[in-house]
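Worked example

This section walks through a single chain of length 347. The input is the sequence exactly as stored; nothing has been trimmed or padded.
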Amino acid sequence: MAPQMELDPKYDHYDFPTTSPEVQPGHPGHTTPEQNAQVFQLRTQLEQAGYTERLDTLTMLRFLRARKFVVADAKEMFIKCEEWRKSFGVDDLVRNFEYTEKPKVFEYYTQYYHKTDKDGRPVYIEQLGKIDLAAMYKITTAERMVQNLVCEYEKLVDPRLPACSRKSGQLLETCCSIMDLKGVGLSKVSSVYSYVKEVSAISQNYYPERLGRLYLINAPWGFSSVFSIVKGFLDPVTVKKIHVLGTSYQKELLDQVPAENLPKMFGGTCECEGGCALSDLGPWREPEWTKPPKWEQNKQDASSTIPNEPTSTIPSHAQPEGTPSHGVHGGQPILGEGGKAHAPMPS
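Given that input, the structure is written out below as tokens.
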């Protein structure tokens, strides 16, 4: 009998497909009886600790996969995540934050979601060659950059991924990321490395299992050699998802992303009015597939919302770790499964 994922009627109120296209143990719709038991065990322990939100099966499975289905480790990761969400004010932030300086920041650091790949996943694009933190800090602040990062992650979780799942007819939990390294020479290596290191903490600790594919295009000379060494320290599952390409990347990229969905500057045919970077086009903007995100549905009641926090004492190890003091990133830093940082950008 094929593995089946057991849903919990108390927490699992999904309005999108819940079976993953990846037929692998531990992925939604393909869990073993032992893994179903581990989901139940993790959820029960968190309930006993006083947690009541984000205990749905898909979330439990992501944290378990990130910690190789070691329940104690997944529990610790979840608790640290919830403590961080409370201290950072994530629920209120995603409802109210407005990044009005975004167009000006994009002149130095372009980062955006744009349509979907051939698997139906959101395509996330970053251009790192023009990063100038000194200039950016004259436009905005380090704090607002990180706040924008968190808001974009929250909007990826809902409404972007649910809308893509509805349109594709299968559960989609990850992104197809394109990181353009054009212009990232030796003079910028130190700043890019520092930036990736700092902002990776948020993704790896608090938004696990979101990397689907990663294309590093326009990789500078010598990058492949460095990566071939570093990948020895990465999870093999992660390595398979990373594609390091030089300047002749178009064919491989177009094998994954339809030409009409890929901006013209990367070899596609898309030319959005006003520019692809600011269009935010995708299923999440299409009325037949998108629905109001849960965080927006409760916006009017935000002032009376009780945050997800335990009724019993949280151990000292729950203090958030790795929260960056500065840095920027909009969606998918170079991260591995289970919260490991990928090879730093030429870095």
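What to look for: Residues 142-168 form the longest helix (27 residues).
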